[in-house]
Amino acid sequence: MQKLYGGIEAGGTKFVCMVASSPEAVIEETRFPTTTPAETIQKAADFFRSTVQRGELKAIGIGSFGPVDLDPRSPTYGFITTTPKPGWAFADLCGGIHRELGVPIAFDTDVNAAAFGEHFWIEKNHGLDPFLYMTVGTGIGMGGLVNGKTLHGLIHPEAGHMFIPHDREADPFPGMCPYHGDCLEGLASGPALARRWGQPAETLADEHPAWDLEAEYLASALANLVLAFSPQRIVLGGGVPQHPGLLDLIRMKVRRHLNGYVKSDLVEKRIEELILAPALGSRAGVLGAIAMAVESNKEQ
Amino acid sequence: MQKLYGGIEAGGTKFVCMVASSPEAVIEETRFPTTTPAETIQKAADFFRSTVQRGELKAIGIGSFGPVDLDPRSPTYGFITTTPKPGWAFADLCGGIHRELGVPIAFDTDVNAAAFGEHFWIEKNHGLDPFLYMTVGTGIGMGGLVNGKTLHGLIHPEAGHMFIPHDREADPFPGMCPYHGDCLEGLASGPALARRWGQPAETLADEHPAWDLEAEYLASALANLVLAFSPQRIVLGGGVPQHPGLLDLIRMKVRRHLNGYVKSDLVEKRIEELILAPALGSRAGVLGAIAMAVESNKEQ
Questions:
Q1: Is residue A9 part of a domain?
Q2: In this structure, is residue B58 part of a structural domain?
Q3: pLDDT value at position B262?
Q4: Residue B79 banded pLDDT, cuts 50, 70, 90
Q5: Kind of pairing between the strands at A105-109 and A56-64
Q6: Within a domain: B118
Q7: pTM higher than 0.90 for the full model?
Q8: In chain A, which residues have their Cβ closer than 8 Å to the Cβ of B267?
Q9: Exposed, middle or buried: residue B195 (CB in 10 Å: 0-12, 13-18, 19+)?
Q10: Counted domains in chain A
Q11: Cis omega before residue A37 (within 30°)?
């Protein structure tokens, strides 16, 4: 029987579930709105059960919205923890899926899953490390692999909330992060763009000054990631960086910010190989979850 | 014969060399000014040879000023690379020591060595990870361990040059980093303190407003490191953070910056266990180099 793997991209608004053996061999895929934990877990489990005749489901990977508990020694391992999302605070997502389906579960953040997916399916054995993933959309999230494994630690990275230069004369918008005001997410998320300019980000014309400012903030943050991690790759996902021309503008500004200090051809001559869009596109998260399942099955 | 290990903290102004089997069993220690590569390497080699009767030198660890080449597959592995220091650009430090003494050499940056030393000798098997080390003195450097190994990658971390908020109305000092102006190092290194206030940092009185501003900048940078790495420990070394009261002020401001977003007791209740001074003091670098030698000998 064919070996199959399950992937769940557990988002605050929707769940994406997939059964596949690789990105080229997707057996089944579904998406549904995130309602209560019980109902949503049930729906996911029903989906995986419906594919039972297609092969043997070996493991499921879950990339989840957070914050999540990633410490295997913790009594709340696999839980979504202090989220403000009604009903989901301390929901046992990992345990819930495991109890329904009885297969091994690999669990991580949504952005670590996306990083893992790009690293696993696209980079294969090129060994690019550190390998980071930043997503810019409704929020700004970051994950990645360092020394071969995803970044965990105290909780998990939250570099979307980094503090960056903000010239209030040039940009009087105070930021809209409920915790930090003008942190990166407060200044540069999709909703921050919409609030600052009074129109949805996707309706801002190419020549609108919004994009130069957006590139400036994202370039400050990416320059900081280059300085902090010395990464060999940063994948920049999410809806906002897809705006035509923005990625090139960001690259140019990252190089200008670093100003010759990081002496690497990858910064100075080939920055399009250092900072790039996800090859897996909007499926990086769920295909990353599949990759986590494949990898966890190898380890056993 | 007793197993001995060598350590070199290779700085731009001085070299510290040590022979020891542990921090409690230091056999011999010396320090001398950094002159030309040939002369300096010779002096270090003579020192290690002079201890030959005290035991068997199994390996030498080197923690070096940078930038250095840490890629074992590179033809310039173990070299100091693009330093402006006269005579030292592309000096083969690792190879020079190896050719003189014929023992295995472990090589890393000075700050990675200091991180490794604190992690190895002080934390032992507590498994705190990521484990970061930031030093604030003439420059600002950062190193650390993530997933059990020191941070390498594109080159090595340079988080001392991170871009942080700078309110030019409150602090009109433009910064003094030759590459970035008002990056962290440009605003908060020892020389930046001296230039901004017109007197050496160590002569600034406790109640001088310099310290609150200094704490503000370092807290922005440390908050960014907490957000980016989710570390379980950050050791804050170098001369500047030793100013009485500064470390507590920094801790308070890091917590205030994060503002409840990172929900961990280590941030909210026990931040003195998250951010602390090096237990090995100013010997963290050279004792870290010794630890690297011990570890490399284990691996063989």
A1: yes
A2: yes
A3: 93
A4: very high
A5: parallel
A6: no
A7: yes
A8: 154
A9: middle
A10: 2
A11: no
**Region of residue A281 (phi > 0: left; psi between -120 and 50: alpha; otherwise: beta):** left
Structure tokens belonging to residue B164: 């942080």
Question: B258: which chain A residues are within 8 Å (Cβ-Cβ)?
Answer: 179
**In-domain check, residue B226:** yes
Q: Name the residue of chain A whose CA is nearest to B221's CA.
A: A163
B45 to chain A, closest Cα gap in Å: 30
What pLDDT is recorded for position B58? Answer: 96
Judge if A131 and A172 occupy the same domain: yes
pLDDT in tens, B1-38: 889 999 999 999 999 999 999 999 999 999 999 999 99
pLDDT recorded at residue B124 = 81
pLDDT at A254: 98
Nearest CA in chain A to B84: A261
**pLDDT at residue B299, rounded to an integer:** 73
Give the CATH number of the domain where residue B33 resides.
3.30.420.40
Residues in chain B closer than 8 A to A165 (CB atoms): 163-166, 182
Domain check: are A205 and A149 in the same one? yes
Q: Looking at the predicted structure, is the pLDDT value of residue A126 above 80? A: no
Same domain assignment for residues B155 and B104: no
Closest CA to A40 of A76, A14, A62, A63: A14
State the residue range of the domain holding B172.
125-278
Which tokens hold the place of B113?
Answer: 């060595």
A164 and A221, same domain (yes or no): yes
Q: Note whether A64 and A206 are same-domain residues.
A: no
CB contact under 8 A, A264 and B154: yes
Most B CBs within 10 Å, among A74, A81, A82, A227, to test the B interface: A227
* Cβ-defined contact of A261 to B152 (cutoff 8 Å): no
Q: Which of A82, A163, A182 lies at the smallest CB-CB distance from B224?
A: A163
Across the range B57-62, mean pLDDT stands at 97
Which chain B residues are within 8 Å of A155, Cβ to Cβ? 230, 262-264
